[in-house]
Amino acid sequence: MSLIIENLYKTYGKKNVLNNISVNFQAEKIYGLLGNNGAGKSTLLNIINNRIFDTKGKITLDGRLIAENEKSLNNIHLMSEDDLYPSKLKIKSLFHLMEGFYGDFDWRLANEMLSEFELEPTKRMNKLSTGYRSITKLIIALCVPCEYIFLDEPVLGLDANHRELFYNYLIETYQENPRTFVISTHLIEEISNLLEKVIILDKGKIIEDDSVENILE
Prior knowledge:
- The chain has 217 residues and is α/β, with parallel strands linked by helices.
- Helices cover 34% and strands 28% of the residues.
- It has one domain (3-216): Rossmann fold, CATH 3.40.50.
- Strand 1 and strand 2 form a beta hairpin.
């Protein structure tokens, strides 16, 4: 199962935010999506996840257009800075909501992560710091039954210990249940040992799409 983006454009007025993006996200790999602020990373991830619409292009998952297929959309998940969840919802209630939406949820892992991160499941989303909101979203990302997980600046607000704990959980869950992760971040040094492939965006264009080994060389 591959997620294929072909000749994707996104314009706002006369500004090209994405310019002829083509990339093949293969199954069961961990990608880094890199680029300066304004390079188009978040726009690309939002289009893939059907939160905003492209100007032109095609995105398919397993040969089916994502935008027209609810089953395909339910097989991808985007964790981002956007606060899309009801602000007064308790964390545990939010997990139940995600379970209902996706049809499954890894409660064993969720409870273990809540304990390790010292996060109380009865806390409401609007009472959490930026870091703990990120942690809550990361738990959801690792516990939903999706084949493609997109993480947009996933460790925002996390201290070094919490970042390392999350990376360990990501690797552990990937080994137990291989899926495709796409990590959009500027902290390349922290995640370089996690990645298999790197895609670099600059001014809305892909300037590198290669293995970590080749790019480091």
